[in-house]
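Hi Y.,

Following your request, here is the sequence exactly as I used it, all 630 residues.
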Amino acid sequence: MGFCIKMKAFLPVFTILCLIAWAGAAQYASGRGAAASPYQGEELINAVQQENTGETPVPLSVIPVDEVRMDMEAYCLTVFSGTKVEKFPLKIVSVVKNHRPGQDMILVVGDDERFNHASAIHGCSGSPVYIDGRLAGALAAGWDGSVDALYLVRPIKDMLDVGTVESVAQMGRGASAGSVLNYDFNQPLDLAAYYQQSMERLAQRGRAAEMMLPLSGSISADVSTQFGPALRGMGLMPVGGASMPAGAVELNETFEPGGVLSLVLCGGDISLAATGTVTAVTGSQIFGFGHSFNGEGAVNLPIAAGLVHTVVASRDSSFKFASPGQVIGTLLHDQTCAVRGVIGQQPQTIPLKIGVDYYNDPQDRVYNCFLAQDRTLTPMILQVALTGAGEMQGTLPFEHTVRYSGNISLNGLGPIHIDNVSSGQNLSDVVMDTYSAVGLLMNNPFEEAKIDSIEVKMTVEPRNMAASIWSVNVSNTRVRPGQTIHATVAMKSYRSLEETVSMDFDVPQNLSPGKYVLQILGAQQYQAFVSKMAPQRFRAFDMSTLKSGLSDLFQYRRDRLYAVMAVPSTGIVLRQHELSNLPGTKMLLMQDAKRLEPLEPYRGWAESRLSIDRIVQGAAQVELTVEQQS
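Below is the corresponding structure, written out as tokens. Let me know if you'd prefer a different format.
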């Protein structure tokens, strides 16, 4: 049970709020910050009372919304530069009843030159607001482009309900991931379709006037803005500009009301952190933001204090440019009115290793990082980190090839191997493959995927490998079973240069006479062919078949030519089990719906592959006549 529930059983609610507000104010005044405390609930109240030796301090009480009047004195605490928490005067404009059903808010305006200069500031979310010396709540929302620094204040009583048993049970762990992505696992796995669908759905999520969290990191502005629509849909505002890696900032590693509250989404050699503000600290418990992050209920995200380099003022959108310190706690609850975490608890993270071999860089770069573990955030932050690492030494040349390989290691199931090549696509193919694989694993409907680590190596070359199939000639269009066909494939490569390659195809030994079509395919067309002929290979029924389906998808290298010919078959498919060339009597027996689950017909084909130094697109076909064996 959360400490709010326990305290309600011990003291009246008003007394609890007073004690929590006094504890936060005392920490701020003393400059001690928030040391980790083992106390919870009633034990926390007893501990606070035992600290009151000598002269008993007057507790700073909480002001309910119903008592707020326009003529009262108000101020907030926040950081504009460095780590210093400062006091900024506010004016009360109005009390907004039922801003959302059952939720009141207080409308205030900044009464300070710096606040007015910057309008509403992203990153101030959670700044505690005091009215007539009593804690009222936190800055929670504003309006981009507003001439005045207008903010909506979330009442503190709503924030302190976050993390109660009832709230967590109602929200559920990772509730938003399934509703946002909503991928149909009954269909064959498709990395490109999954990537497009999930990115579009994330971009469509609206945030209204809610204060998004500035996302800064040790990557270029171009990279962070490249994924802007989807990041904004997740409550993150990419602000660009290089920041220091997580932990590189030397801080007094504590949380205090008005201080920086960073969500460290990627840490280590590459930093990506979202910036908000601490509202209250009581013992080891910390409250902040005054609004949800993604509203997922129970979460497990790394949190750190931080340093504000500056407030970037703009009439379009002002924000805090900040860097995180060392991870010193875990965010555990993400709900409508606030977030709540615990200090001293280590979060669950995923080790990430990125290697980059750039053609004009004398040094092979290796970035050792960690990713926050979350079903929606992890794939997104992974692709931002990969893109940032790949372009750390500059954007890719206009003509380029990227060779990439890696492993996604699953606890108890072993690794999924990635090994492919891309040309003229920047890093989009690398990003799509890794994003989709991790996203499908973490959002599967079967069981929780336990990813032990992710490792990716990228090699960038200044050349164009793209080519398209132009024509195909075969040695003979009238063939017999068992005969080898020699095919000459003409390709158009970069700047319309024509190249030819030869490949052999063996006609199946037991093929019946008749008309057949031999197809020469590039990798994308070959994958589409296999998905149509054998969709069972890419359907997932549990974690084991999900892993095998993803592994099969990664077998289709782009630097190959494929020759295929559909052939008659009398087999059947039972889930992923292919039973080819069954006798008719056995097929009738197995197709009895009373005996087994529904079956599918087995579709057979013959094929050959040729590795070439080109990435081939397109298709061509030749009609063959298979004659009677003499």
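Confidence is low (pLDDT under 50) at residues 1-60, 167-179.

Thanks again,
Q.
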